[in-house]
Amino acid sequence: xxxxxxxxxxxxxxxxxxxxxxxxxxxxxxxxxxxxxxxxxxxxxxxxxxxxxxxxxxxxxxxxxxxxxxxxxxxxxxxxxxxxxxxxxxxxxxxxxxxxxxxxxxxxxxxxxxxxxxxxxxxxxxxxxxxxxxxxxxxxxxxxxxxxxxxxxxxxxxxxxxxxxxxxxxxxxxxxxxxxxxxxxxxxxxxxxxxxxxxxxxxxxxxxxxxxxxxxxxxxxxxxxxxxxxxxxxxxxxxxxxxxxxxxxxxxxxxxxxxxxxxxxxxxxxxxxxxxxxxxxxxxxxxxxxxxxxxxxxxxxxxxxxxxxxxxxxxxxxxxxxxxxxxxxxxxxxxxxxxxxxxxxxxxxxxxxxxxxxxxxxxxxxxxxxxxxxxxxxxxxxxxxxxxxxxxxxxxxxxxxxxxxxxxxxxxxxxxxxxxxxxxxx
Length: 426
Known about the structure:
By secondary structure, the protein is an alpha/beta fold. It has helices at 15-26, 60-68, 72-76, 122-131, 178-183, 242-247, 251-260, 267-275, 291-296, 321-341, 347-351, 353-390, 395-403, 405-416; strands at 3-11, 41-43, 55-58, 90-94, 100-104, 118-121, 138-139, 144-150, 153-158, 163-171, 189-201, 212-217, 220-226, 231-238, 281-288, 300-301, 304-306. It is globular and about 75 Å long.
């Protein structure tokens, strides 16, 4: 079978993969206007865009990136800002007593300016990114089965027998990443927690204020966030037992489990679960990469690197998994664009043009890894610790959770008060 050559191959058409592809397409090149950047090929194993998790909280740090790649405003028009009719945008309460434990305002000003927090539907986000990419950027039904070295290039073998030869290989292929495995990363660890996620659609609109409501108690954490005037996203994290096995492929049992473990919550909250259609509920184990693996592991090696969940899978307790993937995309695009834009400086470099380009790509990916390593370490560690305490059922940890609830809520804004840099070539 013929080998097809591509300059940049990205594995996975999720948030990280599409953000990286659009960042490369948008990055200014040789001083020209935006849109004359670099073409990439995105490989997606499924036959269409895959949407898992239904929605995600997009924090201020990610909105800066979405604005930089030109999709921020269109997404804002479809999703409400979390602010509410009062000063409080995040409210936490106990499901045992039914009483509130903390409140925090998303109107608080950070070091880098005003906060912007919205719950964004994954499908809408992915479609917005795809819409801005050139036709033919994504190749569907293209599952990677192996990676092989070929001089300065990489050979990517697909399940259908076809082979791609590429100068740059980027793994954005999720927690079970083939590229991360090639780089030497271990399979992400099980956090001993699972998550039910769902989306409720109110045909005639709902009465929820644009606020993030969280509930804690008896080892279970749940949350409810409106995306817009007709859609409410919800989640429930818990410590699994044999019961999880029984409901693994049965959304009816998933819904029953969620309803029976809500505890003391307002009727309006219960109604969200009751109205959720069975095909809008999912169950997944929570996995994360041990943070020390990011310190010592190969985020990049030669002309290969990882981004998104292939790089830093984390528990959802900060709401930063998708946001960090968006950050990865623009940082990686900038580093790659800088490497690919440089020209030979002398005759010796011209004679070994392929080798010199390989060195520049390697250096560019090392720069990306250096910039993102400690950000990933920080987010994984913080998310795990906060989740461990918030979902605990012991007396001491429950006391700490309730007394320090406002502090933990403040960490959410602190981690969002971050700027990963502009989309540009240094």
